[in-house]
Amino acid sequence: MPNFEHLRLKDLICKFRLSVENILSVRSLSGMKGAGEKLQKIYDFLVLSEEPFERQQDDLNRLFKSFNYAAVVVNGAVAKGGLTA
To answer: By the 8 A CB rule, do 29 and 85 touch?
Structure first.
C-alpha cells in the first residue's frame, strides 16, 4: 500500500508540472507566480514531512535551483524592459 506522504508529494509535483506546462503553452509571465506558489507548497510539505525522501532529495534540490534560476532570469528581463508581465 502506498505511503500517504509519497502520494501527497506526487500530487504536489504534478500540480507544479501543470503550472510550468501552462507557462510554456500560454507564454505568460503571470503564470510564474502561480508556479512559484506551488513550488513553495512542495518545499513546505518537505519541511513538515515525517518521511525524509532521501532518494528524491537530489532531484528536488535541482528542481528548486532550476526554478529559482529561471525566476531570476525572467525578473531580470522584465526589469530591463525585454519582457512584459
So the answer is: yes
